[in-house]
C-alpha cells in the first residue's frame, strides 16, 4: 500500500495551519463589563469550566488544525494505491473462459467436485456478463481443447459446453490452454478468466511464459481459484517389486497430501490374483512406505494396489510389474527309468536341479516317464528336459508349441536316442539335425574334456568369478554327432569338447529355446554328473532358459495418456493388445516397434498372434496430479510479470474534504459547548474600582 | 442598575416618597390578605380554660383537677389559653449584590427592578402585616448603605413601625452582608418563640452562613428564609461575552455565556438545593422567590408555609 499526491506542491498550503494556532494564542477578550448579582454561581461555573477547558481547548485547536490540514490534503490530490488479489482489468467484453479439467479437479469438496464448482462459477460469470459480451471456452487437462472455435455471443452455447465438462485423469497443461486462449483473442485485448485449483508444483511455473505473452498483448488473466479447504488426498505413488525374504518384497509408497494423518486401508492384488490387505498410516503432508513380503511362489505379470480414499478416487489404484516368483517348475522326462532310482537316467539330473527339495534352489523338477509326458500340463513348466527319450514324436507337437510360446526344451542323448526319430519329431526347431552316436574315446581311456566356456555369454557369466576351470574336468567318451551347421543367427554353440565336437548347442525359437546336450545326463557317456560343475551348470541352465523365456516379455511403465513403444521381434507385423477392461487396444506396428496409447490406468498386455505375451504395460496416473496442494498462484506470477495490473487506486480528495467539513463542524460544536473566552484570565480588580 | 453611592439626604422628597409608597403598598396588600385576626396561641398558666390533658408522671401536681378526680376517678390536668405577643423580626439583606436584577413591578423609585427593591417592599409589607396583627415588630438590615439604624429592636406602636419604614426607605444596597456573622448575632438576640423572616439572595458561600441559622432554632424561633433571586441572573441571560463582576467586589471574570448555559443550570440547581436543605435542616422554612413574582403570591407562601422542593427558575 502506498500513498501519493497528484499535486504535491499544494502541500505548501500547509503553512496555513499557523492560522488557527495564532488565533488560539491571541484569543480575544471581551470588553463589556456586567455587574452580576450571582457572582457566587459564576465563580462556581468558571471553576467547573476551567477544569474542562484544560482538555477541550487543545482538542478544539487540534480539530481546527486537522480541518485545515484536511483541506490542504484535498488540494494536493492524495491517492492511495495498493495491490489487489486479482488484476484490475475488465469490461473489454471479450472473455475467454479457461476451465481446468485435470485429475485434481475431481477432488471432492463439500459434496461436489472442484470441477462442478468451477463450472458453476463460470456459469455465473456468463450470466452476469452484460449484453454484447463475447465468450470463448477452453478446457484443458493433458491437452488443451478450444471448445468454441472463436469468441461468440451465444451464451447458451457456452453454457451447454460447460455442462459437458468432465474431469480427466491427466495432469493439466495450463500453458497450452493459455496459448489457445490467446489465439482465440486474436491479438486484441481481452480477459482470460481461469478456473483452476492451481494444484501441483509444475502447472503454474510451466505457464509463466505464456502468461507473460497474454499480459504483453494488453490482456489479463483473471484467476478464479477453486480450492478445496483444506486440500486432502491420499495416493499410491509407487509400488516396486524387489529382492527380499520369501518371494521378495513389494514396496508401496503412499502419499498423504492432506493436513491430517490418515489410516488408509489398501489392498494389494498380485498378478496371480492373490490379495494382501494392509493398512497404511500416512502422516500429514508426508509419504508412508510399506513393505510387503511376496509369497515364495507367485506368477509374474501386472499387479495392482488400491487404497480407499474418498477425496480423489482416480488415483486410488496403482499398477506394478512383478516377475515370476518362486521355484521354476522344470519337467524332466526320464527315458530310461531303470530298476532302481540310482539306475534312473535322471538320477543325477534330478538331484542337481533340486539338491534340497527344490525350494531353496528355485527349481522344482517334475519327473515323468515318456508316457506320462502326454498327460502333463506343459504350461506350468518353463523348461522340459528330455533325458534319453527313445521316441519323442507323440509329444513333439506339444513341445514345439511349448517352445514357440517361450518354453525351452533341453535334449539329452543316450542309447535310446535315435537320430531319425528326433529329426522327424522336432524338425525345424532343432539347432541342427542329429546324425549318429560317436565314440570320442574308448572306454577305459581318458574321456575327451570340455573346452573352457566363454564367460562373456550370459549362460556362463556366473563362472567368471570362479569355477570356469572345472569345465576341463568334464570329459566324454561318446557323443551324438550333429549335422554340420552354421553358427550365428539363432544357433549358438555354447560348449565344445577339446576336439571341437559340439557339446552344448542352442537354438532360439521366438522367445523359446531348444538346447542339445550331445552327451548323456547320467554318467553313461560322460563324467559330467560326477564333476562339481554339473550342479551349478544345470541350475544356471534352467535359470538362463527360464529367465530368458520370461525375460523376453517386455515390461513397460507408462503414464495415462502416453504413447507406449514395444520392441517387435523380427518378422512380426501384427500385434494385439488388451486393455484394463479386456477391451482390445490398437497397436500400430512399424518396423521393429509397436505403438499403443494407454488411455486409462491399468494393465495392458501386448501379444503376438498365437504367441506368448510380448509385453506388459502398467499404466498409472501421474503422481504429480495427485498432489492437490497449492504451490503457487496464477495471480502471484501475473503480479510478478505486470504489477500494475494488480494496482488499485483510490482518490482521497473528496474524502479529505468531507473530513475537513466534519472536523470543522466538530470544532464548531465544541466551541459552542465551551465558552471561547478563557475563564482562567480572571481580572482580580475589585468591582468597585472597575465600576469607577 | 447600580445604586447611587452618595445616597439621598434624610427626609428628602425621594425618601418620603418611598416611605409613602411602602406604606401604601403594605397597607393595600395587607388589607387584601386580612381574612381574620391572627391570634397567637400559647398554652400555659392563664385565666381562660383551654382543655384537659391526661396526667402523666412528672406533671405539675398543682394543675391536677381534683374535682374531676373526685367525680370520675380520672387523673387529668387543666390547661389554659392565654393571648400573648408574638415578636416578629424581619431581617433584610441589602448587600451590593441586591442592587442588580431585572425583576418587574417593584415600582420602588430608584430601585426599580432590583432585588433590593423587591426585598424592601416585602419587608415593609411583613412589618405592616404583623403590626396590624398587634404584634411588636423589629427590623434588622444587613449590608446596605444610608441607614441610620440598621437594627430596630422588637417593639409595638405606630411610631416604631414608621421608623422601620423610614429605615427601609433610606436604605440603598451596597457593601457586604457577611451573613454568617450577622445571622449568628441576630439569632442570639432573638426572643424565644418569636417569628423571624430573613430576606436574602444568599450570594455568599452557603457553608459560611447556613450554620448560623442554628441560633434561631435554639431560640425556638419560627424561621422563614426568603431566598430571593432574579430569574435573568439564574438563567445567565446576558446574551454576550463580557467581564462579569460583583458589586460587592471580588474578581471580575470574563465569560461567554453561550455554551455554558447547561453547566450554569446545573450549578444553580445544586446551589438552590444546598440552601434549601440547609434551612430545613435547622428547622426553618425555605421560601424561594423570584423578583418577577407578584408580591401577593409571595406573601401568601411566606405566611402559610414554604420549604417546597426547589423549582428551577
Mean pLDDT of chain A: 86
The largest interface is:
A-B, 39 and 44 residues
Q: What's the SSE pattern of chain B? A: HEEHEEHEEHHEHHEHEEHEH
**Shape call of chain B:** globular
- Shape category of chain A: elongated
* Distinct helical segment count of chain B: 10
The residue ranges of chain B in which pLDDT falls below 50 over 5 or more consecutive positions are 1-10, 35-46, 306-313
What level of helicity do the residues of chain A show? 25-40%
Strand order of the largest sheet of chain A: 19-18-20-21-28-27-26
Characterize the structure shown.
The complex is a heterodimer of chains A (692) and B (313). Chain A has 692 residues and is α+β, with helices and mostly antiparallel strands. Chain A contains 15 helices and 37 strands. In chain A, a hairpin with a 2-residue loop joins strand 5 (108-109) and strand 6. The longest helix of chain A is centred in the first third of the chain and has 37 residues, at 39-75. Mean pLDDT of chain A is 86; it is low at 676-692. With 313 residues, chain B is of the alpha/beta class. Chain B has 10 helices and 11 strands. In chain B, helix 3 (115-132) links the parallel strand 4 (88-94) and strand 5 (137-143). The two termini of chain B are 21 Å apart. Residues 1-10, 35-46 and 306-313 of chain B have low confidence and may be disordered.
List descriptors.
heterodimer; A: 692 residues; alpha+beta; 7-stranded mixed β-sheet; 5-stranded mixed β-sheet; 29% strand; elongated; disordered C terminus; B: 313 residues; alpha/beta; 6-stranded mixed β-sheet; 3-stranded antiparallel β-sheet; 10 helices; 11 strands; 21% strand; disordered N terminus
Amino acid at each position: 500500500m502506498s500513498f501519493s499526491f497528484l499535486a504535491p506542491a499544494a502541500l505548501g498550503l500547509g503553512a496555513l495551519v499557523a492560522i488557527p494556532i495564532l488565533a488560539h494564542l491571541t484569543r480575544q477578550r471581551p470588553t463589556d463589563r456586567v455587574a452580576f448579582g450571582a457572582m457566587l454561581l459564576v465563580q462556581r461555573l468558571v471553576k467547573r469550566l476551567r477544569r474542562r477547558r484544560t482538555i477541550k481547548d487543545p482538542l478544539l485547536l487540534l480539530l481546527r488544525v486537522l480541518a485545515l490540514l484536511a483541506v490542504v490534503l484535498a488540494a494536493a490530490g492524495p491517492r492511495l494505491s495498493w495491490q489487489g488479489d486479482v488484476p484490475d482489468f475488465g469490461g473489454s467484453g471479450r472473455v475467454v473462459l479457461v476451465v481446468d479439467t485435470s485429475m485434481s479437479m475431481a477432488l471432492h469438496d463439500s459434496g461436489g467436485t472442484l470441477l462442478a464448482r468451477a463450472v458453476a462459477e463460470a456459469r455465473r460469470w456468463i450470466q452476469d456478463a452484460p449484453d454484447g459480451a463475447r465468450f470463448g471456452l477452453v478446457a484443458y487437462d493433458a491437452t488443451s481443447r478450444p471448445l468454441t472455435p472463436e469468441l461468440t455471443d451465444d451464451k447458451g452455447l457456452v453454457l451447454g459446453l460447460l455442462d459437458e465438462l468432465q474431469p480427466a485423469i491427466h495432469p493439466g497443461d495450463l500453458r497450452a490452454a493459455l496459448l489457445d486462449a490467446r489465439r482465440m483473442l486474436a491479438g486484441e485485448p481481452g480477459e482470460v478468466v481461469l478456473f483452476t485449483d492451481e494444484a501441483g508444483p509444475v502447472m503454474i511455473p510451466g505457464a509463466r511464459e505464456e502468461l507473460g505473452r497474454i499480459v504483453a498483448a494488453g490482456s489479463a488473466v483473471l484467476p478464479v481459484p477453486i480450492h478445496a479447504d483444506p486440500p486432502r488426498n491420499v495416493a499410491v505413488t509407487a509400488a516396486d517389486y524387489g529382492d527380499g525374504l520369501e518371494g521378495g518384497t513389494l514396496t508401496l509408497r503412499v502419499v498423504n497430501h492432506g493436513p491430517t494423518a490418515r489410516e488408509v486401508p489398501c489392498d494389494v492384488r498380485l498378478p496371480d490374483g492373490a490379495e494382501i490387505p494392509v493398512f497404511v498410516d500416512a502422516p500429514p503432508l508426508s509419504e508412508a512406505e510399506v513393505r510387503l513380503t511376496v509369497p515364495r511362489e507367485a506368477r509374474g505379470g501386472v499387479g495392482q494396489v488400491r487404497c480407499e480414499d474418498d477425496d480423489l478416487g482416480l488415483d486410488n489404484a496403482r499398477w506394478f510389474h512383478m516377475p515370476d516368483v518362486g521355484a521354476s517348475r522344470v519337467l524332466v522326462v526320464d527315458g530310461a527309468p531303470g530298476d532302481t532310482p540310482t539306475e534312473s537316467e535322471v538320477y543325477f539330473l534330478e538331484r542337481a536341479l533340486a539338491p534340497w527339495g527344490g525350494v531353496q534352489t528355485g527349481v522344482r523338477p517334475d519327473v515323468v516317464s515318456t508316457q506320462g509326458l502326454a498327460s502333463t500340463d506343459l504350461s506350468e513348466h518353463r523348461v522340459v528336459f528330455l533325458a534319453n527319450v527313445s521316441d519323442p514324436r507323440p509329444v513333439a507337437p506339444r513341445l514345439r508349441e511349448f517352445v514357440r510360446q517361450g518354453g525351452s526344451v533341453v535334449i539329452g542323448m543316450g542309447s535310446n536316442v535315435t537320430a531319425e526319430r528326433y529329426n522327424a519329431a522336432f524338425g525345424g526347431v532343432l539347432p541342427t539335425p542329429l546324425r549318429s552316436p560317436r565314440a570320442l574315446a574308448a572306454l577305459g581311456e581318458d574321456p575327451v574334456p570340455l573346452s573352457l566356456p566363454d564367460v562373456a555369454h550370459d549362460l556362463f557369466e556366473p563362472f567368471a568369478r570362479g569355477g570356469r576351470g572345472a569345465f576341463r574336468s568334464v570329459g566324454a567318451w561318446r557323443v551324438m554327432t550333429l549335422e554340420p551347421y552354421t553358427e550365428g543367427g539363432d544357433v549358438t554353440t555354447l560348449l565344445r569338447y577339446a576336439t571341437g565336437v559340439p557339446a552344448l548347442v542352442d537354438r532360439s525359437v521366438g522367445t523359446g529355446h531348444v538346447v542339445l546336450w550331445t552327451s548323456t545326463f547320467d554318467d553313461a557317456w560322460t563324467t559330467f554328473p560326477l564333476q562339481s560343475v554339473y550342479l551349478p551348470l544345470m541350475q544356471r541352465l534352467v535359470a538362463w532358459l527360464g529367465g530368458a523365456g520370461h525375460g523376453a516379455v517386455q515390461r513397460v511403465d507408462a503414464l495415462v495418456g502416453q504413447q507406449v513403444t514395444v520392441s517387435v521381434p523380427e518378422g512380426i507385423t501384427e500385434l494385439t493388445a488388451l486393455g484394463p477392461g479386456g477391451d482390445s487396444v490398437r497397436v500400430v506396428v512399424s518396423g521393429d516397434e509397436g505403438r499403443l496409447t494407454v488411455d486409462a490406468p491399468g494393465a495392458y498386455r501386448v501379444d503376438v498372434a498365437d504367441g506368448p505375451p510380448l509385453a506388459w504395460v502398467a499404466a498409472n496416473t501421474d503422481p504429480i496430479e495427485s498432489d492437490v496442494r497449492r504451490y503457487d498462484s496464477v495471480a502471484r506470477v501475473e503480479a510478478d510479470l505486470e504489477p500494475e495490473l494488480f494496482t488499485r487506486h483510490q482518490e482521497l480528495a473528496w474524502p479529505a474534504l468531507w473530513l475537513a467539513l466534519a472536523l470543522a463542524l466538530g470544532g464548531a460544536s465544541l466551541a459552542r459547548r465551551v465558552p471561547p473566552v478563557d475563564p482562567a484570565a480572571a481580572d482580580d480588580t475589585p468591582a468597585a474600582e472597575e465600576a469607577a | 442598575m447600580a445604586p447611587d453611592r452618595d445616597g439621598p439626604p434624610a427626609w428628602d422628597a425621594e425618601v418620603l416618597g418611598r416611605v409613602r409608597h411602602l406604606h401604601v403598598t403594605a397597607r393595600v396588600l395587607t388589607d387584601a390578605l386580612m381574612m381574620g385576626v391572627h391570634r397567637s396561641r400559647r398554652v400555659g398558666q392563664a385565666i381562660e380554660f383551654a382543655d384537659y390533658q391526661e396526667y402523666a408522671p412528672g406533671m405539675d401536681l398543682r394543675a391536677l383537677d381534683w374535682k374531676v378526680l373526685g367525680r370520675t376517678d380520672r387523673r387529668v390536668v387543666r390547661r389554659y389559653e392565654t393571648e400573648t405577643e408574638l415578636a416578629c423580626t424581619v431581617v433584610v439583606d441589602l448587600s451590593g449584590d441586591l442592587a442588580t436584577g431585572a425583576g418587574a413591578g417593584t415600582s420602588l423609585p430608584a430601585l426599580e427592578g432590583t432585588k433590593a427593591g423587591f426585598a424592601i417592599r416585602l419587608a415593609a409589607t411583613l412589618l405592616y402585616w404583623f403590626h396590624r396583627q398587634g404584634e411588636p415588630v423589629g427590623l434588622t438590615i444587613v449590608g446596605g448603605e444610608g441607614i441610620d439604624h440598621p437594627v430596630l429592636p422588637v417593639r409595638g406602636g405606630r411610631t416604631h413601625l414608621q421608623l422601620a419604614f423610614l429605615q427601609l426607605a433610606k436604605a440603598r444596597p451596597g457593601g457586604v452582608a457577611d451573613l454568617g456573622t450577622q445571622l449568628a448575632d441576630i439569632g442570639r438576640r432573638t426572643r424565644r418563640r418569636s417569628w423571624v423572616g430573613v430576606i436574602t439572595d444568599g450570594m455568599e458561600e452557603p457553608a459560611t452562613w447556613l450554620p448560623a441559622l442554628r441560633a434561631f432554632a435554639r431560640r425556638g424561633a419560627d424561621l422563614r428564609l426568603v431566598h430571593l433571586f432574579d430569574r435573568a441572573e439564574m438563567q445567565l441571560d446576558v446574551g454576550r461575552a463580557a467581564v462579569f463582576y460583583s458589586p460587592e467586589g471580588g474578581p471580575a471574570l470574563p465569560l461567554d455565556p453561550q455554551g455554558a448555559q447547561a453547566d450554569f443550570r446545573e450549578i444553580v440547581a445544586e446551589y438552590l438545593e444546598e440552601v434549601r436543605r440547609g434551612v430545613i435542616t435547622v428547622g426553618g422554612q425555605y421560601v424561594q422567590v423570584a423578583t418577577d413574582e407578584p408580591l401577593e403570591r409571595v406573601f401568601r407562601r411566606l405566611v402559610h408555609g414554604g420549604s417546597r422542593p426547589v423549582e428551577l427558575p
